[in-house]
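Look over both lines:
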Amino acid sequence: MTAKRTVVVTGGASGIGKQTCLKFARKGDNVVVADFNEELGNETVDLIKSEGGNAIFIQTDVTSMENVEALVEKTVEEFGSVDVMINNAGIGGAGPVLTQNMDLYHKTIAVNQHGVAYGIMAAARKMKELGTKGVIINIASVFGYLASPGTFAYHATKGAVIMMTKSAALELAEDGIRVIAVAPGVVDTPIIQGYKDKGLIEGMAKKVMGNRLTQPEQLADAIYLVSLEEASAINGSVVMADEGYASFK
């Protein structure tokens, strides 16, 4: 039987993050739900506990290195280790390149890029300190590879996540720490509500093999799979969990 691990999920209160928290908890791991939204974060914890799982909520602003470091410290205080760090927190873009909302541009960079960087650094430092052969999983996107109109800042951040994953994996390999990115396509989460409001979802779904939006539970399954010791040969890679979205454009 696999030993119980401690898993931290940023953006764990909703969407892919919430389903990922549920997946790991149902597999018997300790789960830390990290999110800025206290109400939704505690709802996720309550759901896990109602199913017999073990979870806590830690309110976290991933745009603050100090906040992310505190998240890791509190996790270790509670459970004694951090074995899997999932840098999932993310927001949508800031509009077309010529009409960027600059406040939203900087916020997108702060959450999607800096938040992942802080998660990598804080978790890796603690894993090395504790001698933990851990796994860091960053949520990238097909839009780290493919351009689409109106999401200039989002593309920039997801491209950065891909390269940060490769760079960190190279440096941390000697410490036995794996770093992987999982790249979703179009996932049915609140982040695409704007596309729904504009009536664009049917067209987006047609770009997915199977002609439907990917469900967040499917991403949670993929994230769980690459976290396992049986996936130890996967390191520094981007695992495409996009149902073929990037394969036939």
Notes: The chain has a mean pLDDT of 93.
